[in-house]
Amino acid sequence: MNDTINYSFSFSYNQPATPTEPELIMFDDCRVYQLPDDHVLIRSKQSGIQTLVTNDVLYSLHKCDSFKTLDQHISHLAATIPELQGQETDIRQILTSVQQAGLMVSARALATELSHGSPAVQADLPLSLCILSCDRPRALERLLGSMLSNYGINPGYAYHVIDDSRQKDSQLRNRALVEAFNQEHGTRINYFGLEEQAWFQQQLESSLPGHSAAINFLIGRYQNEGTASYGRTRNLALLLSVGRRLILLDDDIVYHKHLAPKVEAGARISPVPRDADFYADNREWEGFASDDPADPASEFNALLGCTLEQALAILKLERLPQERLAELTPLDLQAVQKDARIMVAGCGTFGDPGIASNDWLYEINPTARKSLLRSETFYQEARSRRNVWSGRHALHFSPRFVLLSQMTGLDNRELLPPYFPLFRNEDFLFGENLQFLHPKSLMVDFPWALPHLPLEDRRWDKDSISRPIHYGVLAFTADYLAPVRSDYQSTDPSVRLQALGRHYFDLGALDDVNLGQLLRDETCGLQCARIQRLDKILREYPDAPGYWADDVRKAIAANQKDLMTPLDELFPHCLKDTPRNERLQHARELWQQFGQSLVAWEAIRQAAQQISQNGAQSE
Questions:
Q1: In angstroms, what CA-CA distances link 134 with 178, 346, 357?
Q2: Which of 23, 11, 13, 10 is nearest to 319 (CA)?
Q3: How far is CA 275 from the centre of its chain?
Q4: Average pLDDT, integer, range 216-238
Q5: Could you give the 3-state DSSP secondary structure of residue 317?
Q6: Model confidence at 17, in pLDDT bands (50, 70, 90)?
Q7: Greater confidence, 340 or 223?
C-alpha cells in the first residue's frame, strides 16, 4: 500500500488572472449587545473584534449583508433608507470607520487567506462504492456495463450492490447478474441482498442487544411497499464503509462524465443553488460526453476530507479572485474558513434531475429561465418533461447542502449521522443533520454531470403550480432543525450527536395542540417566503412572457389563499396512508425513534466496523 496518493486532473481548474478591481466588502456576522443612550456593542462572531455604534448605524450595517464595493454600499443605503438620501459623505465616513475597526469582511482578504495552503498528504485508504438498487435489474446491468467500459473496475475499491428490491424476481435477477458480471470480468463486486442484510442486522443486534430497536428502525425491512425507504439502503452503505470514503450511486445512472454546457475555469465558493438548462431530448446534450479517462470516483476521492485550503492547493488555485466569493452572506462565514473540511462531494445531472416536483422551475436564475422560455410550446413541454441539465459551470464549494446528487461522495472516516430511513427528502435532512454535527463543513460540486435515465417514463405534474406548497415530514424536520444549529457551542461531533438526538426527542414529545401550531407556523413561513420570492421575480422581470407570468401568479394566488384557511393538509404526501387524526402521533413516534437511533448511532457504527473487519479477515 502506498503511503500517499498523488492526484491529477485531466482538465484544468486553474483560475485565469483578472485585473485588480475595487475591494468587495460586507458587514461581518456580529453579536449585538444593547447599551443605554441608543448605543450597541457589536462583536464579530469570528474574530472577536468589537466596537460601539448607534442603533441607527447598526440598522444601516445590517443592509450591508452582501459583498459590494464601498461605493455600491453607499449608493444602496442612500437609495433604500429615506433618511440617508443626500448623506453620501456621512455614510462613507461611517462605513470607513467600521471597516477600519475590522468589522467589514473583505472578499479579497478572505480569498487570499484561503488560497495559500499546501496540498494534502492523505493516506491511501480504501474507497467504498455502494450502488443502491431497487427493482431495476436492467438499469443495474446498464450501470455496471458503463462503469466497466468507460473507466474500468478499480481493484483497489470496494464495490457493493445494496438491493432493496421488493419483488422476488428482481432480487433473483440482480443477484444473478452481479455473479455473472464477476465471473466474466474477474471483478469482486459484493451483492448485498436481503439475506446478507438480515445477517448483518442480526450481527449488529447480537453485538448491541440494548440498541436492537434503533438498529431495526435504521436498517430493518419495511413491509409497506408504498412507503419510500431510500434512507434505509443509505444507512447500510454508511455502516458497510465506516472508516472509509464512501460514494453512493443510484442504479439508474450511466457512469460516464458529461461536461457542463459551459465549463468555467477556477472555482466558486457560494451558497447559491445549482444552475440549469433544458432540453427537448437526450440528443441535445449527448455531445457533452467527455473523453476524460479519469474515473469520477477518483476526482471525488481527491478532495473528500481535505480542508478548503488544501483542496484549493491541490487544484492549483493559488489566486482565487474575490468575485468568486461575492455571493457569500455573513452567515456563511463560519463554514467558509481555510480549515473547513470537504465532507460531501457531488456532481450534476443530465436527464431526470430526480426532483419530485417542478416548483423549482419558477425560481431559477435569469440565464436558466431564458433556456426554459425559448418558446411557449417548449415551456409547456418542459414543465413535465424532466430532461434537464442541473449542475455547476465551475468547480463549486458550498456551505449549504441543499441538494445531493445521483452520485454522492461522503467522508465516512468522520462521524456522519444516519439517514432518516423513510420518505423522500432524506438527502435534504441528512445534509442538515451533517451540518449540525460539523458546522465547519463544505460540499464540493464538480463541473461535470452523469446521465440519470430512469427506464420508466417519469413526468412532472403540470397542475402542481395551482396548488399551495405543504411540508412533508422530512422537509419540515430539516427546516425546524436549521435555525437551532448555532445554539450548541461544542465542536465535538460526538457531543453534538447526543444533542441532536435530544432535539428529536423534544420534537417528538410535543402534544397535538403544540405540534399542530408549530406546523402551522412553519407552513406560514414556508408559504410567505415563496410568495415573496415569486413576487420579487415578477417585479424584476417585467417583460416576462404572459404564459409564464400567469403561472407564477397562479402559484402566488394558491399560497395566499391557503394562508387564510385552516391547515388541513398534515403531511399529505408521505403520510397519505395514515388516517388524518393519527398523522401527528405517527410523526412524533418516528422522531422519537430517530432520536433513539441517533443516541445509539456511534456505538452502531463501531460495531459495524468490527463486523466488516472480521468478515474481511475470514475471507
A1: 14, 22, 21
A2: 13
A3: 14
A4: 87
A5: coil
A6: low
A7: 340
Per the CB < 8 A criterion, the answer to whether 243 and 126 are in contact is: no
Residue labelled with grid coordinates 431495476: 136
> Cβ(244)–Cβ(414) under 8 Å?
no
CA distances from 140 to 43, 173, 451, 486 (A): 55, 10, 14, 42
The candidate with the shortest Cα–Cα distance to 420, out of 259, 233, 247, 607, is 233
Kindly report, residue by residue over 578-613, the tens digit of the pLDDT.
787 888 999 999 999 999 999 999 999 999 999 988
What does the alpha-carbon distance between residue 103 and residue 98 come to, in Å, rounded to a whole number?
Answer: 6
H or E element in which residue 104 lies: strand 104-106
At residue 130, the pLDDT reads 98
Q: Which three cell numbers stand for residue 207?
A: 453485538
- Residue 169 corresponds to which cell in the numbers above? 424476481
Biggest alpha carbon–alpha carbon distance for the chain: 81
The tens digit of pLDDT for each residue in 122-167 reads 555 679 999 999 999 999 999 999 999 999 999 999 999 999 999 9
Q: Which of 324, 294, 287, 285 is nearest to 308 (CA)?
A: 324
Helix H segments across 277-328?
296-303, 308-314
Q: What is the pLDDT of residue 205?
A: 97
What single DSSP character describes residue 249?
E
pTM of the model: 0.93
* pLDDT number for residue 5: 40
Q: Are 249 and 130 in contact (CB under 8 A)?
A: yes
Nearest to 282 by CA among 178, 388, 412: 388
Give the cell for residue 204.
449488529
CA pair distance 286, 290, nearest whole angstrom: 10
DSSP helix/strand/coil, 422 = coil
Q: What are phi and psi of 376, to 5 degrees?
A: -65, -40
The enclosing H or E element of 53 equals strand 50-54
* The C-alpha cell that represents 604 in the structure block: 452502531
